[in-house]
Every structure is written in structure tokens, then in C-alpha cells.
Amino acid sequence: MEVVIVPDAAAAAEVAGQVLVDVLRAHTAPVLGLATGSSPLGVYRYVVASGVSLAHASAVLLDEYVGLPTGHPEAYRTFIRREFTDHTDLPEERLYGPDVWVAGPELPAACAAYDALLAKLGGVDVQLLGIGSDGHIAFNEPGSSLASRTRVKTLTGATRVDNARFFDGDLDAVPRHVVTQGLGTILEAQHLLLIATGAGKAEPIAAAVEGPLSAFCPASVLQLHPHATVVVDEAAAAGLQLADYYREAYQHKPAWQAL
Ligand code: GLP
Prior knowledge:
By secondary structure, this protein is of the alpha/beta class.
């Protein structure tokens, strides 16, 4: 795992954004894994501002709420279009997400179909990730199997409180159920790129990067991936014991070695 510590959120967005731009330029049919939440917003702005083309790309969502009407402003498909893909030349039909709009009993089949779709696309080239205050990635809450596949999950109370800000602070409006790529599914991406900024992320980042590999901190599963990059600002790096080493390693990174 490579930990990149930068001064602030703007620098973090730049570093992570450039990774996406490089993938988009290097591949003929790149597959981007997109995350929602506030952490990736600067990354999306950076990619849009770069002017790089997504005309031959596909984009896949990590997760989706269950129970919101199609087109709801906080449905993750709507969010990602508004915040990112509508500002690019990505063909609309190549934005994929789990189909949560089927009848309840059909959800498990829709989850399996989403895993099959990811495989059919040839896998994800780079998966952007945020981290929840309880250490979740996508919507894999604490206790999620490290080998899990795309499936229905129930959100913790803490995550619903965190996400109520997107629903005008109305906790009752935050769905209880979601469909999320599993941790095993996420591990299949070629490159995992996690971005976290602000003091509120210091604890989960320390647990994910330097704590034990444990379902209790789902983001610790990044420790199993051969190509995982964690981009943090100083505030989010505050709990890292080896911060000086990470800084030194990044400062002396060989010029030929990409992130
Ligand atoms: C939600 C999303 C996650 C995201 C997390 C953190 O739970 N499902 O993918 O990482 O929020 O959000 P934020 O970046 O706003 O802190």
C-alpha cells in the first residue's frame, strides 16, 4: 500500500485526479470505478477540468440506495451524473450501477447480474474510494465479509446519521437498505485509489492503513490488494504512526514509478 500525504484537500484531489486522467489516456476502453460522497468531488472536478475524453470509457458505480425513486436527486446514479459524468463526454449508456429498482425478491439476482457485468466489462481499471467514519468502503459496513460480493446491506445508524446531510438533515429520509459491491468484488479492480481528507477521517484511516486486517474495519481490506494507493491530507493523516516514512517514500519515489 502506498500512502501519499499532501497538505490539503485541493492537493489530494489533484494527485488522485491525475491517476484517473492517466488511466483514461493510457487505455483504449478504460473502466473507471466511481464513488459517491463528498470526498471524490474535487477529483471529479479535476478530471473534468483536464478536458480528457471519456468517449471510449465505461464507468461503474460502487453502490446504490434501495427504495429511492428512479431519478431521486440523492440516488447515486443521479449524484454521479450531476457531479461528474454529465460534464464529460461519457456516453450515458456506459454509466452502470446495480439495478435496485426491481422488486425486493429480485434484488439478489440483480446483485449477481452486476458482478457478472463487471466481469464482462473486463474489470475495473481504477476504483476510486472514500471511507466512512466507521471504516466502511462503498456501503460495506463493519462486519462485512472480506470476501463479500455485491449484495444487499443494512446501513448502520451512524452511517445514516452521516448521510442525513444529503437529505436536508432528515434521518427518516435516509434509506436503511442499499446494494453495494462487496469487498471481494472491489478487490478485483486493478488499482484501488482511496481519498480521505479532514480530521474526521483520521481515525478510520489509521485503522484501515495500520490496524489489523479485520471485517470490523472494512477499509483494512486494502491491505490485501497488490496496488492500493491512499491519498490523504495532513488532517486525515494525523493518526498515522508511520507518517514520516510515507512522506519520505513519496518524496524519494523513483521518477519512473507511477502511482
Ligand atoms: C457513503 C458512500 C461511500 C463514501 C462514504 C463517505 O457511505 N457509500 O462510498 O466513501 O459515504 O462519504 P464522504 O466522502 O462524504 O465522507
